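A reminder from the course coordinator: this example appears on the midterm review sheet, so study it carefully.

Given structure:
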């Protein structure tokens, strides 16, 4: 087990040195101060001055979805490269366990927390403890709701993820010139407990709205509200079961499904499996996704998934680590943090209100990956390599 972990870490360190953006615009230490940043409020004051005395607690949701393993490994490696210690926990997609894991990290006296919430609504009590102990909290990838213990949010532009999926459908089917032609679509969204899920779904549905309203896109099941198409815990199995039911109820007479709008790759995997037997061959529906999980990239090459919105999580870690370093140095980062790394990101102070006010956010830019450009975006950049079987694998 230790050997395996060491292997993953070494791989991640190598990958970091090969790819992604960097935070080397200056040479940081934990005691750096930034002339352009203002001093933080007392609640986010630094408690340690030397990198080796700093421990960062990283709380990830689950190991069972591919991306979070990458996030955890990248964050750990990059924090350790600065000399910090890292406590990394995974909570098995169980919200109570995440509360417990966070309680332990707080009790251990970590200096800063990076948290990707399982249930964005369930952490306000435990994070009040963090706040009481002056432990700054970065909300990672998913916004944590209803707590003022959050200093910042780092993510990709989640609404844009959905917009890219919608636009891909419009462009690929040339919906603007569809004339009388109609396309049948079914939607599969994410976990309602994840604040991102609504952004993805709304981004896609807002983009497709004109074509749904004018009847070019038809939804035979009639299920187009988020609550109806959501997938508990983002589970492949739940998406598979729901799509099987939809197909049995609305498509059994041979009605052709043309578009399966899926918010991410774990749901796309289930949907692709549900439609596989009916659509092997010529009339394969368009299937969207998000993340670039290895199993989905295989489906992409096999024609069972049409696109994925790729988010380079190595870069999400770069931004998070740069931000954490500034907070730990006692600064109050703002848009000028963008000068400290080479990733393309926006500083957003209007989009993400967690119920206690707008949380300042650093949002990275996602990419559309298809069969036509995957080499350029995933392989040439070093994120993936092509295995002997011709399929993509995480870079070694
Ligand atoms: C992430 C996605 C991921 C999903 C399921 C979301 O919060 O942004 O990248 O596919 O969770 O893990």
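Designed residues:
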């Amino acid at each position: 087990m230790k050997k395996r972990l060491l292997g993953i870490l070494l791989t991640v360190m190598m990958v970091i040195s090969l790819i992604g953006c960097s935070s080397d615009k200056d040479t940081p230490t934990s005691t750096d101060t930034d002339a352009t940043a203002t001093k933080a409020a007392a609640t986010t004051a630094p408690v340690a001055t030397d990198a080796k005395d700093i421990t960062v607690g990283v709380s990830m949701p689950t190991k069972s979805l591919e991306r979070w393993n990458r996030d955890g490994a990248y964050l750990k490696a990059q924090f350790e490269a600065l000399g910090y210690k890292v406590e990394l926990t995974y909570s098995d997609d169980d919200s109570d366990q995440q509360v417990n894991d966070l309680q332990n990290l707080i009790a251990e006296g970590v200096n800063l927390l990076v948290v990707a919430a399982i249930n964005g609504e369930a952490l306000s009590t435990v994070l009040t403890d963090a706040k009481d102990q002056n432990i700054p909290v970065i909300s990672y990838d998913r916004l944590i709701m209803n707590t003022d213990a959050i200093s910042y949010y780092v993510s990709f532009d989640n609404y844009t993820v959905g917009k890219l999926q919608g636009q891909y459908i419009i462009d690929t089917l040339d919906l603007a010139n569809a004339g009388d032609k109609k396309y049948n679509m079914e939607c599969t969204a994410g976990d309602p407990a994840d604040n991102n899920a609504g952004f993805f779904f709304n981004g896609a549905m807002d983009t497709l709205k004109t074509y749904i309203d004018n009847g070019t896109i038809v939804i035979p099941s009639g299920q187009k509200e988020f609550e109806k198409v959501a997938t508990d815990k983002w589970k492949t199995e739940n998406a598979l079961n729901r799509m099987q039911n939809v197909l049995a109820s609305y498509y059994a007479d041979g009605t052709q499904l043309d578009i399966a709008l899926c918010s991410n790759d774990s749901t796309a995997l289930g949907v692709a499996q549900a439609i596989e037997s009916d659509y092997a061959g010529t009339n394969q529906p368009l299937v969207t996704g998000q993340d670039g999980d290895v199993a989905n990239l295989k489906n992409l090459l096999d024609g069972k998934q049409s696109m994925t919105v790729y988010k380079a999580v190595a870069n999400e870690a770069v931004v998070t680590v740069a931000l954490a370093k500034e907070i730990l140095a006692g600064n109050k980062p703002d848009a000028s943090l963008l000068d400290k790394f080479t990733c393309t990101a926006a500083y957003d102070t209007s989009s993400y209100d967690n119920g206690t006010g707008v949380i300042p956010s650093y949002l990275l830019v996602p990419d559309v990956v298809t069969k036509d450009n995957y080499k350029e975006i995933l392989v040439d950049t070093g994120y993936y390599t092509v295995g002997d079987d011709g399929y993509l694998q995480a870079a070694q």
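Residues 1-18, 27-45 have pLDDT under 50 and may be disordered. The radius of gyration is 21 Å.
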